[in-house]
Amino acid sequence: MADWDPVQYLRFEDQRARPAADLLGRVALTVPGEIVDLGCGAGNITRLVAQRFPGRGVVGVDSSPEMLARARVALPGARFIEGDIARFAPAAPPALIFSNAALHWLDDHGALFPALLGRLATGGVLAVQMPRNHGAPSHAAMVEASRMPRFRGKLAAIVRESPVAEPRVYYEVLAPHAAEIEIWETEYLHVLEGESPVVEWTKGTALRPLLAALDDDERADFLAEYGRRVAAAYPRAADGKTPFPFRRLFLVARAR
């Protein structure tokens, strides 16, 4: 995985924070314990979690030292750990494992999600939001461009075509282990400003590992191919802004 760029990611901080706030609104904690934010990134969402549940210890976990450096400044009262979010095992079962826009980077959700639920205290909550926009032009265009002969050799093994399953799959995976489950999807209409804003959005997330695998000339050519497809799929509105529909999956599960 290429290093994350906090500045690029936070260019759309308000829009990226909205799903996290919506997820937090559906979380009710009834047991004592710490809060773990898996894939905490730059700490902007961890701050929302800490504000929602004051008085609890908060631990942020991420694999990016660049993001964690930003997080420690954003929320000095929390503890931040560099590590693999798939394998992080808290010292004591937490009351909440929260993950916003991170777990879609991991594979084998059929094993991962029950394992996360099993790390909670009895009555604890697993709350997850993941992008499920991979069938939309913003992501399909990455796959199309990556299959072009000049890029295929470097990108075929990197591009992730459909990392998030349908909602029913997560219900079936979690139902044997959960006391309660709530799963839903929301499609947000983000209204973006600037030149090539959808390209700038994806450069902070899904495009990142693809661009990192290419040399400078290849990267410029790939962005041109991707940008041409995206511009056609997301035209500007009459006011000059770019409406950008984006679908996300949410789940809240309470451990038995």
Summarize the structure.
The protein is of the alpha/beta class.
Structural class: alpha/beta
Q: Give the averaged pLDDT, no decimals.
A: 95
Number of helices: 11
Taking all Cα atoms into account, the compactness measure Rg is: 19 Å
Strand order across the biggest sheet? 3-2-1-4-5-7-6
Overview features:
256 residues, alpha/beta, 7-stranded mixed β-sheet, 11 helices, 7 strands
Report on this model:
The model has no long low-confidence stretch (mean pLDDT 95). The longest helix is centred in the C-terminal third of the chain and has 18 residues, at 216-233. The chain has 11 helices and 7 strands. Strands 3-2-1-4-5-7-6 form a 7-stranded mixed β-sheet. By secondary structure, the chain is an alpha/beta fold. 37% of the residues are buried. Strand 4 (96-100), helix 5 (109-118) and strand 5 form a beta-alpha-beta unit. The protein is globular and about 50 Å long. It starts with 5 loop residues before the first helix and ends with a strand. Helix 2 (13-24) packs parallel to helix 3 (44-52) and helix 6 (137-146) runs antiparallel to helix 11. Helices cover 39% and strands 21% of the residues.
